[in-house]
Design brief:
Chain B: It comes from Paracoccus albicereus. The complex is a heterodimer. By secondary structure, chain A is an alpha+beta fold. Chain A has three helices and eight strands. Chain A has a six-stranded antiparallel β-sheet with strand order 1-2-6-7-8-5, with helices on one face. Chain A is globular. Chain B is about 30% helix and about 30% strand. In chain B, the strands form two sheets. In chain B, strands 1-2-6-7-8-5 form a six-stranded antiparallel β-sheet. Chain B has a two-stranded antiparallel ribbon with strand order 3-4. Classes of the chains: A alpha+beta, B alpha+beta.
Chain lengths: ~140, ~170
């Protein structure tokens, strides 16, 4: 008997559970905003203990990296080719401007090219000024079949 | 010219105080638990393992974002440390962690690229950064990180930074 492919709805539900079970994502207060085929939108709040520059109160770059990495990983997992798992090969982050303190940061990631074993992703992070990105990222992720 | 006869304990406490001021001023470092070991002017960033740093509970493995933050921190602190070393040695700079206005301004990351070479184990991690090029405005830094074996890196990174400009 042929195994039935999970429905789109099932896959999104599974992905949601998977992301919500990541301890570090939970510790940073990450929240899923939207999931779709090969793309994801996630956000996280500013917090005093995440500050990287005491003078300006700007959040640490590494926190933005974590949001980008998680969001890219989620988008790779949600590619319609249905990979079993994924891991980051490399990730480049460009910091375009300091994120405004006390504002929520939202990242959107999508697969712009996928081979049998690798997904290429792009992501952008915004604060509450939704027009001028805080950071952008490109990354390669493994796809395990 | 450094004073050769300066008491050793005084030299050590001056250097340790300067390092502490750099690190203690950053709330995020305390929250993730990053600290620095110093041997002369050589720094090693240390990240003790904690459950909250997990990114993949099935393996389990440290979150890629933790690794990224750890390497970026190792790079920034090394860069700030190296650029203020002479001033600290000459007694021109005496940063105090309790007085934020005395703290040196940190370099700003322009871009940062991380290679994930193997998954981060649920164990302590270490990183060392090397300033490849340091100019008046820009600097380029290479970082490598390992866990159990110094020769088996689990991540490496390069980044470009904007140096703080004197007013």
């Amino acid at each position: 008997m042929a195994e039935q492919a999970p429905s789109e709805e099932d896959r999104l539900r599974i992905a949601r559970q998977f992301i919500e079970a990541i301890p570090y994502a939970a510790a940073l207060g990450m929240r899923i905003e939207a999931l779709g085929p090969g793309e994801a939108t996630m956000s996280m709040p500013w917090a005093e203990h995440l500050v990287g520059d005491p003078q300006s109160q700007v959040i640490h770059g590494g926190v933005v990296s974590a949001l980008m990495d998680t969001c890219c990983g989620a988008a790779a997992m949600l590619h319609p080719s249905q990979p079993r798992s994924t891991a980051t090969i490399d990730l480049r982050i460009d910091y375009m401007r300091p994120a405004t303190p006390r504002q929520r940061i939202t990242a959107h990631a999508y697969c712009y090219h996928v081979t049998r074993s690798v997904a290429f992703l792009r992501a952008e992070a915004l604060d509450e000024d939704g027009e001028h990105p805080v950071a952008s990222a490109t990354g390669a992720f493994t796809l395990d079949r | 010219m450094a004073n050769r006869n300066e008491p050793l304990h005084q030299i050590k406490s001056r250097r340790d105080a300067a390092l502490k001021a750099l690190v203690d001023g950053v709330p995020f470092l305390a929250w993730v638990g990053i600290r620095f070991d110093r041997r002369g002017d050589e720094l090693t960033a240390v990240l003790p393992f904690q459950q909250k740093l997990i990114g993949n509970p099935l393996l389990p493995a440290i979150h890629g974002g933790v690794t990224a933050a750890f390497l970026e921190t190792a790079a920034i602190i090394e860069l700030a440390w190296a650029s203020q070393w002479e001033d600290v040695e000459q007694g021109r700079l005496t940063p105090d962690a309790d007085d934020p206005s005395s703290l040196p301004r940190l370099p700003k990351t322009i871009d940062f690229t991380i290679d994930y070479l193997r998954s981060g184990l649920p164990r302590d991690a270490y990183a060392r950064a090397r300033v490849v090029r340091s100019g008046r405005r820009f600097a380029s830094v290479y970082v490598e990180a390992w866990q159990d074996n110094r020769a088996r890196l689990f991540a490496q990174a390069t980044g470009h930074f904007m140096m703080p400009q004197d007013e």
